[in-house]
Amino acid sequence: MKTCRLVIIGGGPAGLAAAVSANEAGERDILILERDEALGGILNQCIHNGFGLHTFREELTGPEYANRYIEEVNNRKIAYKLNTTVLSITSNKVISYVNTTDGFVRLKAEAIILACGCRERPRGAINIAGSRPAGIFSAGTAQKLVNIDGLLPGKEIVILGSGDIGLIMARRMTYESAKVKAVVEIMPYSSGLNRNIVQCLNDYNIPILFSHTVVEIKGKDRLTSVIIAQVDSSLKPILHTTHEIKCDTLLLSVGLIPENELAKNAEVELSSVTGGAIVNEKLMTNIDGIFACGNVLHVHDLVDYVTTESMLAGKSAVQYLNTHSNEDRVININVKNGIRYVVPQHISCDNDYSAITLKMRVNNVYRNTSIVVSLEGVEIITKKKPICTPGEMETINLHSELVRKIKNGSNLVVELKGRE
Questions:
Q1: Buried b vs exposed e over 292-315: b needs ≥16 C-beta within 10 Å?
Q2: How much is the CA Rg of the chain, to the nearest whole Å?
Q3: What three-state secondary structure class fits 344?
Q4: Which of 86, 128, 187, 310 lies 20 to 30 Å from 20, alpha-carbon distance?
């Protein structure tokens, strides 16, 4: 059996940043396993700009952003294997992978960073009635067809869901002379960034229908139309509000699911809310030496946030490799009153008092509210927000003195107050 001190599963933006960070922290025995034919992950098909504003203070396209880290990996001579599928990992950190060069390999790692990204929720997960004609794609698949393969999925488009990829594809399909007839969103608010609503829909006069959904698909060999209907407060279709939109293509942008099949195999505890692992402030899971970062942990808005988080994972993995310390006592972070989830979910009570960033999402649109962090019932941080939406991640920074106080406490709560 081969051995490696640190194995990173996934060569997208999370895996690349984690590898660079681990190398900066002094680790040299690093291996990245990537199932695609190139490093970069989803960024390779994201040819639009808007990346890197936080990390590099300049606006880059997805491939340009990825290339910055690919060059770093190559310059630091960090090992990686492409076209490599990881079949399983175990709780004692044995990795099984396969590729055409090495065949089937079992590899014993001292630490593992899961950076597997996420996958799109398919049609089968949302139970749309109707036939199964050609012309129905996930938004990410359509993006790959247009940007990588140079193929146009259709000419008359309806997009179900207002996730960021769907919004960006509305603009992209418009550039390619297709007619985007509507974006249909079941919720009364967008699940994407507000800037994408403005730049991708409003700027091109593409209508978005809130509180609507697709209830039926029509067409035999090829999609011919969709039936949409308004939904009530319970998200149930109101049947007398149905109307038909003629189209030859339906793009689904109905959510992303963290790719955690490998984590389940390793008995990593997963959150029922995020779909990702439950981690501490070092991004370590309940399995000693297995870390998670990026979209496999929870879905992020910006790749810049993925990079920041993944660099913490790389640094934390090296710290673990050098000390093998793991504090048993933890402080759970509880959420209530409008906060849907927070990451990390708990804080270990060790002697490291470095600053911690709490990342969270709300469960609805709230105006003139405050995000409040309380310790033992006493408010220690209040962050006023004119608006909070589920499509945009919120953050709270805990400085080192607060972290020291929290680690000596027992009950930490994050909630919204003064909601409208």
A1: bbbbbbbbbbbbbbbbbbbbbbbb
A2: 22
A3: coil
A4: 86
β-strands 156-160, 243-246: how paired? unpaired
Q: How far apart are CA 63 and CA 70, in angstroms?
A: 10
Which whole-number Å values give the CA distances from 97 to 8, 81, 89, 100, 265, in the listed order? 12, 10, 9, 11, 14
Q: Could you tell me which CATH number the domain at 1-119+256-326 has?
A: 3.50.50.60
Tell me yes or no: is domain 122-254 CATH 3.20.20.140.
Answer: no
Q: Does 122-254 match 1-119+256-326 at the fold level? A: yes
* Cβ partners under 8 Å of residue 351, min gap 6: none
Residue with tokens 């490093």: 39
Q: Mind giving me the DSSP string for 134-186?
A: B-EEEHHHHHHHHHTS-----SEEEEES--HHHHHHHHHHHHTT-EEEEEEES
Q: What is the pTM of this model?
A: 0.94
Query: In terms of Cα–Cα distance, which of 291, 212, 200 is closest to 244?
Result: 212
State the DSSP code for 218.
Answer: E
Q: Looking at 186-282, which runs of residues are DSSP E strands?
A: 208-210, 212-218, 225-230, 243-246, 249-252, 256-258
Structure confidence by residue, pLDDT tens digits, 123-175: 888 888 888 999 999 999 999 999 999 999 999 999 999 999 999 999 999 99
Task: Write out the two tokens for 95.
Answer: 């990795």
Q: What would the pLDDT profile of 80-136 be if each residue is shown by its tens digit?
A: 999 999 999 999 999 999 999 999 999 999 999 999 999 999 888 888 888 899 999
Which residue shows structure tokens 């396993």? Answer: 33
CA dihedral 193, 196, 197, 201 (to 10 degrees): -160
